[in-house]
Amino acid sequence: MPGRTREAWIIFAEELRRRVRSRWFQVTTAVVVLLLVAALFVVPPLVNGDGGEAPSGPDPAKIGVVDESGGFPALGGSGMGARAAGDTAAGGAGGPRLFDDRAQGVGALARGDIEWLYVVPADYMQSGQVEQYGEFVGRFPSNPGGEAVFRALLVDALLSGQVDPSVRLRVLDPARFESYRVVEDGSVAPLPPITETVGAFMVPLLFAALLGLGLAVGAGTMVQSMSEEKESRLVEVMITSVSPFSLLAGKLLALTVAGLLQAAVWIVAGALILPAMFRRISGFGEFGISGEMWAIIIGCFIAGYLLVTTLGVLVGAVAPSAREAGGAGSWVTILPFFPIWFFSLMMASPDGLLSRVLSYLPLTSPSGILARVSAGGEMAGWQIALSLLGVVALSAVVLWVATRVFRAAILMRGQNATAHNLWGAFRSAG
Amino acid sequence: MSEFALTVEGLTKIFGERRVVDGVTFAVQAGEVFGFLGPNGSGKTTTIRMALDIIRPDGGSVWVLGSRPELAVLRQVGYLPEEAGLPAKARVIDTIRYLARLKGLSRADAEVRANELLRRVNLYQHRLKRVDVLSQGMRQMIQFIVAIVHEPRLLILDEPFAGLDPLNVRLMKEILTECRQAGATIMFSTHIMADVEEMCERIALISDGRLLLFGDLADIRRERGVRAVQVQAAAVPAELRAAPQESLPGDVIEYRLGGGWTPERILGSYAASGVAVDRFEQVRPSLTDIFIEEVSRARQNA
Predict the structure, then answer these.
(1) What range does the domain containing A258 cover?
(2) Within this chain, do residues A230 and A326 fall inside the same structural domain, yes or no?
(3) A212, A337: one domain
């Protein structure tokens, strides 16, 4: 094995071994897997509701009604409402509970017998106003679910006996949409099933977030490793044995591979857990991630880790101490999160200027591409490849600069960081 | 093979306005043990760093093992920095093996040498511990192992005995002697003059970046002449009671020379008075005396 390659390989193997053995690496790897496992059990019940059905507002039996207008006997007599036994309130099985007056209803509300109380005043038919009583918790109290349920009860009661039952049914459920997309050539195609749509949205977004997390951890580790080594005398021993390029290239590859190993664990866990999670959500059915999507995800992860780790090398090489490196390094760790922060804007305009900048700018493109794809943006394969190629090219340039800066920083030990000294050290660092 | 393992000529380093090393010239002969002396902040470490191409000089030149200090040559050099330079969180055995491999040893050789040297310095039982849990002295011994693990032709040690207990100092000296017997050249800096007198044939002394002394230690001491004589005898002749003297343990009197008092006159007095002399020894200045004298004079002249 040629000298430089052998040196870089030895450094790579040692750094990778140290990194993979570090507790921080193992904890961050495991935490994401555990969160995915937790999501498998937590998300489906949350989405499905307790009964496994889509949420549709409060149980009508938990709604109380006081009809002062006397115009809604059907609320209590049509099976939707009936008087309850044992108290003065009334209500049908499964329907709203009727109360004689407001005081009784409020009392039931206070006891927790009902959750919401609606009082239909005597002039309801003229005013349309309904009084609503409830706990109204939260900073911006509202009750859209309960209101929708009671509105449907009122419509049902108003139409009862007034129109043909089939008309009544259509008034209550007037339209079930089937959507079709018309494309530029005039052809018409049905919209993709919801499984596919949610998958196309969630999968890249989830992996963009994972990439952001992984890159932040990876960059932080690289910055710390570099600055600590530079600050200690270890670097003096090292550079009497290996070239700065071999040293940095070995470290860079090790941390990139370590990051990708971590990402691979997350990706495999995601590939196993996400379909299982979606299968447990009612009406979602089978869910898969296409080969094309996997290619994009893997490409973004490799390019992203390469660039961010290289930037970590540069920051570690430039910073005079570990403390200062930490401050500067935080900027590197923030970059991958930009597309996540601006995701709502990308959603509004998936192929707009911001989306294009974030998906083509090498500093943000690895997570930017995933976020844009998630938002529904259209990027051809060659555009994605070109963008990622830009990331790799920038990484190579940054590594070259970092190598010289690293050597220059060592050469400058004990000297003031004047422009003249910096330039002199940079030139002689080759 | 070059006659000199290390040569520095007119070596100069300027930090800001200060000439930290100012035209220093000396050469370390192949196979010798060379002492590099100087007070704190005199430029010793900066000179060593320039010799190893860790930093570049502003003037002058360096030759290591007959060549410019490039990586291929520096891999044949063992370096022990003034402060321990070891990865804190790594295990002892991994650290030695790793740094040995970077010096060119195969994995198997690195393993064998690391274990062999750990046994030699009685740290084998600590080989699986992390470096940062070891004491300062232990870390220094590990650093020493790293410096010699690849059997270098030239060993440059910056304050190697600092932080070591007397047992480890003795052990390190034994190993250094073995390295020398195996053909290595050794150059070390230290503040402990007794170590230099014990181990070195030749020295260089620098202060404030300038070379004050360079050469054979015995010659340097001889050039400074005899300062006193020590006499061990049962009594003091009457003539010598007026001579400047100091009583030392074991019936030894040290007479300072000068003012008409010469070794011949003192010895003659004993012979004339009939007092039997058990031991008569000329006292040359110690290296500590020379160090203090030279550095003080240089600072007064500066």
Answers:
(1) 2-48+193-428
(2) yes
(3) yes
Last residue of a domain, one of A176, A201, A234: A176
Q: Which of A16, A20, A234 to mutate to test the interface with B (most CBs of B within 10 A)?
A: A234
Q: Considering its fold, how many domains does chain A have in total? A: 2
Domain contains A55: no
A343 and A246 in one domain? yes
Query: Does residue A402 sit in the same domain as residue A254?
Result: yes
Say if A250 falls within a structural domain: yes
Rg of the Cα atoms in chain A: 32
Q: Are residues A137 and A213 in the same domain?
A: no
Give per-residue pLDDT as tens, A41-95: 888 887 766 544 444 567 788 889 999 988 887 675 444 444 443 344 444 556 7
Over residues A172-212, the pLDDT tens digits come to 888 887 778 787 788 888 777 766 777 777 778 888 888 88
Could you tell me if A313 and A364 lie in one domain?
Answer: yes
Regions in chain B scoring below 70 on pLDDT:
1-2
Mutate to test the interface with B, among A4, A232, A233, A420 (most CBs of B within 10 A): A233
Give tens-digit pLDDT for A346-363: 988 999 999 999 999 998
Interface of A with B (CB under 8 A): 7, 10-11, 14, 17-18, 22, 228-229, 232-243, 410-411, 413-416, 428
For residue A76, the domain's CATH number is 3.40.1710
Q: Which residues in chain B have their CB less than 8 angstroms from residue A17's CB?
A: 94
Q: Are residues A314 and A210 in the same domain?
A: yes
Domain boundary among the residues A141, A176, A211 is at A176
Assess whether A141 and A198 both reside in one domain: no
pTM, two decimals, is: 0.72
Residue A77's pLDDT is 47
